[in-house]
Amino acid sequence: MSGDSLLGRRVPRRADRIFVRVGGWEQLREAASAVRLPVFVQEQGIPVALELDGRDAAATHAVAFDPAGRPLATGRLLADAQIGRMAVLAAHRGKGLGVSILRALVAIAAVRGTRELRLHAQISAIGFYLREGFSIEGEPYEEAGIAHQTMVRLLSA
C-alpha cells in the first residue's frame, strides 16, 4: 500500500467521533487554514507571508474535525519528511487532537517508507514531541520570532 492510497480517507481517532482526514492542499486548504490562521497569525503574531510559505501544495495535510465537521487541529508532512504547521485551536487543546494529527502524519510517513522524520518544535511543545518518540537535535534557535528546537524521530524499516 502506498502512502498516497491513504489520502482523502477519514481516520477515526477518538471515541467521541472526532475524525482526522488526510489529503492534499486542494482538499483541505479551507479547513487547515481555519485552524492555522487563528493559531499562528492571530494568536502568535506570525506574519501571513511566513505562515503561507508556498510549500502547502506539495504537502500531505491532516485535519481533525468534530462531529459537525468543524476543523479543530491540523498539521502537514512535507516531501522531505518534515512535519510542520501543527496547530490546535485554543479552545480544544489538551484533548488529544495534536496527538491524533501527529500520529496520522507519522503513519503516512511510515507507509511511504520514510526512515527519519524531522520537525521544528516551538520550545513550549518539546515535551509533547518527546512523548511521541522524537528526540532533540542541536541547539535552540529563533524562527518567525519564536524559540524553536529541531527534533527527529527514526521510523522502523
Largest sheet: 8 strands, mixed
Structural Rg? 15 Å
SSE pattern? EEHHEEEHEHEE
Strand content: 25-35%
- The overall average pLDDT, rounded, is 91
Task: Please work out how many helical segments DSSP would assign.
Answer: 4
N-to-C CA distance: 15 Å
In terms of structural class, how would the helical and strand content be classed? alpha+beta
Number of DSSP E strands = 8
Classify the helix fraction into a percent range: 25-40%
Whole-number total of structural domains: 1
Instruction: Identify the CATH class.
Output: Alpha Beta
Strand ordering within the main sheet: 1-2-3-4-5-6-8-7
Shape: globular
User: Uncertain segments of ≥5 residues (pLDDT<50)?
Assistant: 1-5
**CATH topology (level 3) name:** Aminopeptidase
Which short descriptors sum up this protein?
globular; disordered N terminus; alpha+beta; 28% helix; Aminopeptidase; 4 helices; 157 residues
Structure notes:
The chain has one domain (3-114): 3-Layer(aba) Sandwich (Aminopeptidase). It has four helices and eight strands; from the N terminus they run E-E-H-H-E-E-E-H-E-H-E-E. The longest helix has 19 residues, at 25-43. The chain has an eight-stranded mixed sheet, sandwiched between helices. It is α+β, with helices and mostly antiparallel strands. It has helices at 25-43, 48-51, 97-111, 126-131; strands at 10-12, 19-23, 60-65, 71-77, 82-88, 116-122, 135-143, 146-154.
